[in-house]
Amino acid sequence: QVQLIESGGGLVQAGGSLRLACHASGLSFTRLTMAWFRQGAGKERELIGRISRIGTNTVYVDSVKGRCTIYRDNAKSTVYLLLDDLTPEDTAAYYCAADVDVLWSSMTNTSRLAADYWGQGTQVTVSS
């Protein structure tokens, strides 16, 4: 079993940035392809992006390209999400997710919304 614990949510001003962290335990972190999702109130869950097991590859959805960075520290078993130029539209619960022992080529489809494991989520509210 993999446990994922997100941190760093809260209230952020529009135009600001957010940095979320997700710590994984239960399996070797380098076996995990990590992802960040979000779900706004009354909206469907959407993928933000994924990062490969070693961290050399990332993929982002179009709506966050240019203002989003996902990176990981394998020594700390932690993946991070940086999101800049926040607007109230970025208000959502943010979730990290993990897939175990998967090929990166199968993870580049941004329409794929499934994952093996999920964190409990952290709320981010952007005030205007």
Unreliably modeled segments: none
Main β sheet profile: 7 strands, mixed
Structural class call reads: mainly beta
Radius of gyration: 14 Å
Helicity range of the residues?
under 10%
Estimate the mean pLDDT confidence.
96
User: Which H/E pattern describes the elements?
Assistant: EEEEEEEEEEE
Instruction: Give the helix tally.
Output: 0
Strand content: over 45%
Overall number of strands: 11
Give the CA-based shape.
globular
Gap from first CA to last CA: 40 Å
Q: Could you please describe the fold and organization of this structure?
A:
The protein is mostly beta strands and 128 residues long. It has strands spanning 3-7, 10-13, 18-25, 32-39, 46-51, 58-60, 68-73, 78-83, 92-100, 117-118, 122-127. The protein is globular. The model has no long low-confidence stretch (mean pLDDT 96).
Secondary structure elements and pairings:
Elements (H helix, E strand, L loop, with lengths): L2 E5 L2 E4 L4 E8 L6 E8 L6 E6 L6 E3 L7 E6 L4 E6 L8 E9 L16 E2 L3 E6 L1
Parallel strand pairs: 2-11
Antiparallel strand pairs: 1-3, 3-8, 4-5, 4-9, 5-6, 7-8, 9-10, 9-11
Observed structural traits:
128 residues; seven-stranded mixed sheet; four-stranded antiparallel sheet; 49% strand; mainly beta
Give a quick rundown of the structure.
The chain has strands spanning 3-7, 10-13, 18-25, 32-39, 46-51, 58-60, 68-73, 78-83, 92-100, 117-118, 122-127. With 128 residues, it is an all-beta fold. The model has no long low-confidence stretch (mean pLDDT 96).
